[in-house]
Design brief:
Elements lengths: L12 H13 L4 H13 L5 H27 L6 H15 L15
Helix pairs in contact: 1-2
Length: 110
């Protein structure tokens, strides 16, 4: 096995602090954490920034789906269907230990 080569980078004290916190949160030494980030970046794996982008895209798609389904329910000939769906959603959220807020597709009553 070849001897590891040291790389050097200068960062602000704020960024250094954030790196230390992130490494500690993952239970890694700073050098191990940085090595894994560099390796993933070089392997074109999903990075932290693309994870955030993926989450934003999924959130936007979920919102679109939620609005579309709610509109279909509101226009359905069975006017009670929408309320039953909201009640079922609230029950499933409660069963899963989640809150059913209106921001997440639940009704005001949940």
């Amino acid at each position: 096995m070849s001897r590891p080569i040291s790389l050097q980078v200068y960062v602000t004290s704020e960024l250094a602090g954030r790196v230390r916190i992130a490494a500690a949160a993952d239970g890694l030494a700073v050098s191990e954490w940085l090595r894994s980030v560099i390796f993933r970046a070089c392997e074109d794996e999903i990075s932290v920034t693309s994870d955030r982008g993926l989450l934003r895209r999924l959130y936007r798609q979920s919102l679109f789906s939620m609005v579309g389904v709610d509109a279909l329910l509101a226009g359905h000939k069975d006017h009670a269907l929408r309320e039953r769906v909201h009640q079922a959603f609230a029950a499933k959220c409660k069963q899963a230990g989640l809150t059913a807020s209106t921001d997440e597709g639940g009704s005001h009553e949940a």
